[in-house]
């Protein structure tokens, strides 16, 4: 309760400013009278706050409505200037870099994707990310100076400062100071997140988990990763490693991710999606060894997801990643979870598909900016 | 932000009252001047709040200090009346019922244990709980009317209203409206919690996890249960089933909990701790079948705990329950977690031992009362 100091006037000013801005953004060009009603604040307080917001460029006077020209001067209306700043969400993946651009309301204004070779070293992958961003800003006609925050998501365990602690999926990724490297290209904050964590945030924002606050997102591949929301908030874990369930099979089990889907006994490259998809096609066509391989793959996925579900007890499990689109993954998962979990969750396919990770990175950038704009939480701190 | 209404005077009054009470409880019989300094509130505000707290019985004027009698009338001092109310923490287990009594500061004033047969039906177990409480109140000389909250913990998945959704460890436990049944014996709130969840809270309060906010507590037995704290808060899961990792082995695995430690192929009764301990003794003495059984048991425990650790990434894993005290459990667990987890947690033995579950139930009762006394959090609500 260290920061709780009773009637702190600067705290009240910040609360009032955040309340007005929040109300302005939610309402449709309200008048001052309307803002007084919606916020419960006094008219002089609202007037003072609105003037301050206009000066900072976040609020602008809206044109008067047509129907309101009945008599005398119409009441002044105000709106939030979503165009006062911009945000980027970037996915750095094994085969491509995707970037999304939005305004301060989170409305997506454009997107660009560039392919990159799965064997590309870290420098080349980062150069590809910079090119993707430059193309996107140029196409959208948005100045780099207008960016308020950049979210970046990719595979691996990410430290709080944006360094990749462990990232075996991409060459040269482990130990890469990804945040520091990208910060050189931007003047605004750059936030780095694990890809499955970002996707969980995205599906909660505007995907299959909208409306659920207890969510597990599974990025299904040869070695699945997962992200989870608990009470609507991303659960990163004490060291950022929460949801890295892929290591579970190593405990007293024979199959590695690479041999799991093999029909020859030879290891498959973990990122060779085409070859893996071929195994699924063969299985559908009745090939016995492919069917066995596919059964092993699904068993493993079910086991990993079940471990997450038993540990966390989410309301919904959203399955994304390349394996989610393959036939025969979702139904066995649903059946097995219903069979073994004491309280089976809903199981849904990712609604955002390939856009999930970049969309989550964008949402994290938006969260960061909103925290600055609307920061009142935490001033009255929780007790324990 | 629905409840955020700017300068709400009743909210400010509540904040001020909570700040003063909190400061009074933490400080050593402060004077009014001292309270004004510590809280940052005005002297008239502090005076008004203290008068209100004296009227409610929560604060009393403390005797003047000896050394302070230098000249004139010494300044009035005040203290929190921890004896203004009492709390109970009750564990209802397979073999015994334990109850702890404390004052409003959480200081334990007494404890009583009664044995109960593992085959006792629910009615007899509840009667034993009532007898235990009656003995404890009598021994401590505390009136039942003085109780402000009662925490109860036992095995099983517990609904928010205190009904046991699933509890196979005790006869007649599944479906039991445990909260409603116990509420008939008390005039104060009765809170029901899963035993592993309660133990996690206890170890965080004053046990092996004090100082860590990301904790997994494993109640190690034939079918392990677990409780977890995330950011210092108990994580119950969407349906109260979080941590019920015991079902994981059912997925494509042969051994049930009952055959896991068997040396004959015949099932062991899951609650027969003496027989299980005998297997461990035989193993230490070199019996080959007992060693195999023990290895299976530890492998299973390691696997279940690893699943929790990978899903949650806690700072520390605390192992309690009867199996925690057996030799050869903690070291293999530590080694295997270090081998397979990307960020291995600390592994510690429960510091509270058999008292962990009842202590956690007591802490939950204390949390409930403190929320009422010091409730200001949540009035300025979080955004997402």
State the name of the first-level CATH class of the largest domain in chain A.
Alpha Beta
Total DSSP E strands of chain A: 14
Low-confidence region ranges of chain A: 1-7, 376-384
The CATH superfamily of the largest domain in chain A is known as ATPase, nucleotide binding domain
Largest interface comes to: A-B, 70 and 71 residues
How many helices of chain A? The count is: 11
Order the strands across the largest sheet of chain A as they lie in space: 5-4-3-6-9
Order of helices and strands of chain A: HHHEEEEEHEEEHEHEEEHHHEHEH
Helix content of chain A: 25-40%
Short key terms for the protein model shown above:
homodimer, 384 residues, Arc Repressor Mutant, subunit A, Nucleotidyltransferase, domain 5, 38% helix, 18% strand, elongated, disordered N terminus
Describe the structure.
Two copies of one chain form a homodimer. The first copy, chain A, is an alpha/beta fold and 384 residues long. The first copy, chain A, contains eleven helices and 14 strands. In chain A, helix 1 packs across helix 3. Chains A and B meet through helix 1, strand 11 and helix 9 of A and helix 1, strand 11 and helix 9 of B.
